[in-house]
Amino acid sequence: MTYGQIANQAGFKNYARHVGATLKKLPMDSLLPWHRVVNAKGELSFPIGSPSYEKQKLLLESEGIKFIGTKLSLADYRWGVN
Fold this sequence. Notes:
- By secondary structure, this protein is mainly α.
- It has one domain (3-77): Arc Repressor Mutant, subunit A (Orthogonal Bundle).
- The chain has helices spanning 3-9, 16-24, 51-62, 74-77; strands at 67-68, 71-72.
- Strand 1 and strand 2 (71-72) form a beta hairpin.
- It is globular.
């Protein structure tokens, strides 16, 4: 899902940044699958090459998500589209 999709599903259209801020505050031992949330461009929101970026990318790739450069295909992977 994208941050915007989550905001819309929660009834808060145009509050995608709030979703990101909330995910950022999750405890380290959270079981919420935060790594499955990407931005509207199909990119990870962490700085490229940062430990958080690499962790999220690795988790997504372990689930079969394929990246083209730094993006994943929202047409192929976005929730509710297929």
